[in-house]
């Protein structure tokens, strides 16, 4: 670490020595002398760090050196900051500014002060340099380190494990287990590839086709049922789940997996508490269908034996065979993945033999040797390290991987100790943190810091220091994790100067016990996880003692925390801080003391409740990252924000800004500005707020940009000053006009506004590299097409048009071959999506990449084009279709039956007929999820396509009972306020047992979950008794249903009964003395009005005297979180949206 720090100090010294400021203040000679001393020490640091593992005295010497180098860096940063601040005082150059604003006496005084401080540090370093002679360190030449130029996608290299994979897959697919949910443990030492094997299984095509849904959860050391249930839900729904009580989370989980075949992978389990395991398993198995499976990976044999199903032996993972080991090493160590040169092969096989078949060790050693170009370098690795390996081969090998990193990558890796094990690290944030600490530097003036940082990340990824990388839709690296052993290595390397505290050790007793030396801490993170933020009151006290802190981060925040008054206590103590991250920490007023943090480069106040930002923030001239995302109470930025001329990232998304300060366009290094707001005063020139012209010079903007307040732009020429077509790095653009005009403007005003909006939009033509565009409340009647405005955006993958109520036509969509999502909402004047001339012949595929089509609240839309459905073009890949509140639509394009989800709400019978006619069945058709609301009869042609349907939800709908007999694959049936449950006459007239001696037909043979939510239901229909596979039954709001039928006892597969808000019926099922208990007692899991009556076949009993009180408490708790089940939430949101849009867009 000292070598990396020395390298950083030398770079700063070289930069300052060349600056005219050092000459002006008479500091150049002192800086050069200090540079000479540091260079002398730097030459022996590689050898000193190697010897430190064997000598305590060397460790103490290095510790003293690091302290002195830190002080030197702080002083040099002080000086460069002073230079920046004085440069800002005049725009005519530094020398002129100093002469005008500072007297000669002040210049001399400051120069003497800095000179004396440099002399003091040099004196300390000279003493350290003298002391090093006792150790006889050798000068080690720095090996040339060339960074690998990798592609944006890192290839996954997996060797072997095919036999293991097939063995476990056969276990998962086997129907011969007695248990409802069989558990298959994979056990083995760290680094063997348990996670990789589980991933191969999880993504196998046989597994995907067998199981209805899959979930992957990384457990690690925290095995709490509530946390696990929440993680499973997030894995399945791909959405963030609020922190809810366990019983509510359980309901959500049961709704999600109810009667489905589920594969659950729990990766890296350490829990040895059998009671916790049993409790969690019960929560999962009570709802999942029989035949569901769990795969567990663990290092501990005792855990594998504890959780294994009785008839399953844990799968013990071994090391790779010798040929497999060589194959993996060869791919990692040699250019092109193929060995070359006899001597290299000999040396490589010696290395492979020492790695003993451990994939992580093979990857790490291959990554080390990949960057060694000569035989002598390979021999050095072998002779100095591998031939003397003792003890833990894996830990020693990983340490060797670290030792062979370039010094700048060593610091980047050690810094990751700030994140807890199994933490999902945001790659973008990690690179920004590295930048703030000075670990990322430009190699030349044309370099871009974040691109250099990404190369650092890719190099560490290639060497296997990171894993499990996720990417966004465009292939950009989004998040990653560290293997547990790599995390252990980072902890040992970083030492006591980097600390990650969690909820279990954030206590005054621990901090005062001497286990943590607060005065030596440089980097501190606090992981609150599921912990209450009441603990946060300790933070100011903690930081007051950590006076040398450079990083303070709060991570894994769930509950927002009060931090009032804390700023005044801690800011004066944190003068060396480079990183301050207080995401979701409530601080309503950021006080004026913040300007004292002059070294600050990273400031994160996202999702904060602050209302005011001090103007003193503009004095933070080193600031690079300023994150205000989600600050919903913040309306204004500091007026002098232009002084933050080093600012690179300014995230304002989801904030309530009413404007942007003038001068923001002078931030020449700015590469990310997520939100820009035009105000009426700015447009009139009566306010210092920024107009669109401020965007003109910001051509390096990348990522996303939202421009709001476009209704205030007075003409086309003003819009042209934004210069959007020069911003080639933008990927997502959102343009917003004020929605208030919809309700306030007269027809004449709207006509004028329509012409103006059209010209403004034409002037805002973006670069052709754009991937996503969204227009909101645009009032033009068409979208500009001159100069290929729209057709030039051929790389678009997403188009969203919201509330554009005057829009009468859309541009030709034929050129958009990459378009994946098209969403039209509230387009009240649109009659056809495409004109007849724009639409290709019906034998051609149209929009070949389109996957999602959503058309909602388009009250005058007649269809896709004037062509009849049978003559319309084919959309071959649409898998998600939503049509909501479009009463006139009857003409559709054609679709292949390849749907994951179809949602039709308040549409006409003509549309349903057209939809049925539009369907083309490929050889392997798929139609998994259909949601119908407020619709009438389904046409037979559509019904015929539903043979593969697995989930059906119908609300406020009247359908023919005959439909049910044509749904052989249906597994989940959710009915709300529908009138076709009384199917008994239809099915039993011709199937009377006494007359025909034949059994009634099984209406829904695959049904596993039935949810009935209807006020008027008097009795459960008889056809339910023949659904022999039914496992979950929910009855909600059925006040007229007085009792359950006796034939319910015949449903032996039934595992769960939930009765909720059913008046008399609830009382008849509430306890083992209630009237209907003999009918339901065979059901293992029974819940009545949020009270668990029976669990896993064990009657829990209920105290009738306390029942009312408990019920009231449960309902209040659920209500406080606004969510009882995802279906109820969706329905509520849909109703609210419906009411709003009906008022806005319907007659």
Automatic annotation (TrEMBL):
Residues 692-826 form the R13L1/DRL21-like LRR repeat region domain. Residues 31-82 form a coiled coil. GO terms for molecular function: ADP binding; ATP binding. SMART domains: LRR_TYP (SM00369). Pfam families: LRR_R13L1-DRL21, NB-ARC, Rx_N, WHD_DRP. Keywords: ATP-binding, Coiled coil, Leucine-rich repeat, Nucleotide-binding, Plant defense, Repeat. CDD domains: RX-CC_like. Residues 162-335 form the NB-ARC domain. It comes from the Eukaryota. Residues 418-490 form the Disease resistance protein winged helix domain. One of its GO terms (biological process) is response to other organism. Residues 9-92 form the Disease resistance N-terminal domain. This is Disease resistance protein RGA3.
């Amino acid at each position: 670490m000292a070598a990396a720090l020395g390298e950083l100090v030398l770079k700063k010294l070289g930069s300052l020595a060349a600056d005219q400021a050092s000459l002006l203040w008479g500091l150049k000679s002192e800086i050069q002398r200090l540079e000479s001393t540091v260079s002398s020490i730097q030459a022996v640091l590689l050898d000193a760090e190697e010897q430190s593992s064997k000598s305590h005295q060397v460790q103490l010497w290095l510790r003293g050196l690091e302290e002195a180098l830190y002080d030197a860096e702080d002083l040099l940063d002080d000086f460069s900051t002073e230079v920046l601040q004085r440069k800002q005082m005049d725009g005519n150059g530094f020398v002129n500014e100093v002469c005008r604003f500072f007297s000669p006496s002040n210049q001399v005084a400051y120069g003497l002060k800095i000179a004396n401080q440099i002399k003091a540090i040099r004196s300390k370093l000279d003493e350290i340099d003298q002391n090093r002679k006792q150790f006889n360190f050798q000068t080690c030449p720095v090996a040339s380190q060339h960074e690998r130029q990798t592609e944006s996608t890192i290839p996954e290299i997996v060797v072997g494990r095919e036999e293991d994979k097939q063995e476990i897959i056969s276990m998962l697919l086997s129907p011969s287990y007695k248990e409802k949910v069989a558990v298959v443990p994979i056990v083995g030492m760290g680094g063997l590839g348990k996670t990789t094997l589980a991933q191969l299984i999880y993504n196998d095509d046989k597994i995907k086709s067998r199981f209805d849904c899959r979930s992957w959860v990384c457990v690690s050391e925290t095995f709490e049922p509530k946390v696990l249930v929440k993680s499973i839900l997030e894995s399945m729904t791909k959405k963030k789940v609020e922190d809810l009580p366990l019983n509510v989370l359980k309901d959500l989980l049961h709704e999600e997996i109810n009667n489905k075949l589920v594969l659950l992978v729990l990766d890296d389990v350490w829990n040895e508490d059998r009671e916790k395991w049993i409790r969690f398993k019960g929560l999962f198995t009570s709802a999942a269908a029989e035949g569901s499976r769990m795969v567990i990976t663990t290092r501990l044999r005792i855990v594998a034996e504890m959780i294994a199903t009785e008839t399953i032996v844990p799968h013990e993972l071994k090391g790779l065979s010798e040929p497999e080991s060589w194959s993996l090493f060869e791919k990692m160590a040699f250019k092109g993945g193929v060995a070359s040169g006899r001597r290299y092969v000999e040396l490589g096989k010696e290395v492979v033999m020492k790695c003993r078949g451990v994939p992580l060790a093979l990857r790490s050693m291959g990554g080390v040797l990949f960057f060694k170009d000569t035989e002598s370098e390979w021999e050095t690795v072998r002779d100095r390290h591998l031939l003397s390996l003792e003890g833990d081969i894996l830990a020693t090998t990983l340490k060797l991987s670290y030792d062979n990193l370039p010094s700048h990558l060593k610091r980047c890796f050690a810094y990751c100790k700030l994140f807890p094990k199994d933490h999902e690290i945001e790659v973008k944030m990690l690179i920004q943190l590295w930048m703030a600490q000075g670990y990322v530097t430009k190699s030349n003036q044309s370099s871009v810091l974040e691109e250099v940082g990404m190369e650092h990340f890719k190099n560490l990824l290639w060497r296997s220091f990171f894993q499990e990388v996720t990417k966004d839709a465009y292939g950009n690296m989004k998040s990653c994790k560290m293997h547990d052993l790599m995390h252990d290595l980072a902890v040992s390397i970083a030492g006591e100067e980097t600390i990650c505290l969690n909820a279990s050790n954030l206590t005054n007793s621990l901090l005062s016990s001497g286990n943590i030396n607060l005065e030596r801490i440089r980097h501190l993170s606090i992981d609150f996880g599921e912990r209450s933020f009441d603990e946060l009151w300790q933070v100011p006290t903690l930081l007051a003692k950590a006076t040398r802190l450079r990083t303070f981060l709060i991570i894994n925040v769930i509950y927002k925390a009060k931090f009032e008054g804390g700023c005044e206590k801690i800011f004066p103590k944190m003068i060396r801080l480079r990183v301050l991250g207080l995401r979701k920490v409530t601080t309503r007023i950021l006080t004026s003391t913040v300007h004292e943090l002059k070294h600050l480069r990273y400031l994160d106040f996202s999702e904060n409740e602050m209302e005011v930002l001090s103007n003193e923030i503009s004095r933070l001239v080193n600031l690079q990252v300023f994150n205000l995302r989600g600050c919903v109470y913040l309306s204004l930025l500091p007026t002098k924000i232009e002084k933050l001329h080093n600012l690179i990232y300014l995230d304002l998304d989801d904030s309530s800004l009413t404007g942007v300060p003038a001068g923001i366009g002078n931030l020449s290094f700015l590469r990310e500005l997520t939100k820009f707001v035009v105000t009426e005063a700015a447009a009139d020139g009566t306010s210092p707020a920024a107009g669109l012209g401020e965007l003109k010079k910001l051509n390096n903007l990348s990522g996303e940009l939202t421009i709001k307040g476009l209704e205030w732009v007075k003409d086309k020429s003003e819009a042209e000053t934004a210069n959007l077509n020069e911003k080639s790095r933008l990927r997502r653009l959102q343009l917003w006009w004020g929605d208030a005009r919809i309700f306030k403007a007269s027809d004449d005003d709207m006509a004028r506004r329509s012409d103006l909006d059209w010209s403004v939009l034409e002037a805002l033509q973006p670069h052709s590299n754009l991937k996503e565009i969204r227009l909101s409340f645009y009032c033009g009647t068409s979208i500009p097409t001159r100069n290929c405005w729209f057709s030039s955006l051929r790389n678009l993958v997403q188009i969203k048009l919201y509330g554009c109520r005057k829009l009468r036509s859309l541009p030709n969509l034929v050129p958009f071959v990459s378009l994946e999502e098209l969403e039209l909402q509230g387009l009240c004047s649109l009659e056809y999506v495409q004109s007849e001339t724009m639409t290709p012949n019906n034998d051609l595929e149209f929009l070949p990449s389109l996957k999602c089509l959503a058309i909602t609240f388009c009250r005058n839309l007649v269809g896709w084009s004037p062509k009849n459905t049978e003559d319309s073009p084919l959309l071959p890949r649409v898998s998600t279709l939503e049509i909501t509140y479009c009463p006139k639509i009857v003409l559709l394009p054609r679709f292949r039956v390849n749907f994951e989800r179809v949602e039709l709400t308040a549409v006409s019978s003509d549309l349903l007929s057209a939809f049925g006619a539009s369907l083309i069945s490929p050889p392997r058709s798929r139609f998994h999820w259909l949601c119908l609301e407020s619709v009438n009869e389904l046409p037979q042609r559509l019904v015929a396509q539903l043979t593969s349907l697995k989930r059906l939800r119908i609300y406020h709908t009247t359908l023919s009972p005959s439909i049910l007999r044509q749904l052989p694959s249906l597994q989940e049936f959710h009915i709300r306020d529908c009138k076709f449950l009384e199917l008994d006459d239809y099915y039993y007239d011709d199937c009377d047992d006494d007359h025909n001696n034949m059994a009634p037909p099984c209406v829904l043979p695959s049904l596993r979950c039935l949810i009935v939510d209807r006020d008027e239901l008097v009795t459960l229909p008889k056809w339910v008794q023949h659904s022999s596979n039914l496992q979950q039954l929910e009855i909600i709001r059925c006040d007229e249903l007085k009792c359950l039928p006796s034939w319910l006892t015949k449903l032996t597969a039934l595992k769960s009964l939930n009765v909720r808000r059913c008046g008399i019926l609830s009382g008849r099922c509430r306890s083992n003395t209630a009237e209907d208990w003999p009918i339901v007692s065979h059901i293992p899991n029974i819940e009545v009005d949020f009270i668990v009556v029976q669990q896993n076949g064990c009657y829990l009993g209920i105290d009738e005297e306390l029942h009312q009180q408990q019920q009231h408490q449960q309902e209040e708790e659920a209500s406080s979180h606004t969510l009882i089940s995802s279906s109820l939430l969706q329905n509520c949101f849909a109703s609210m949206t419906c009411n709003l849009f009906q008022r806005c867009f319907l007659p």
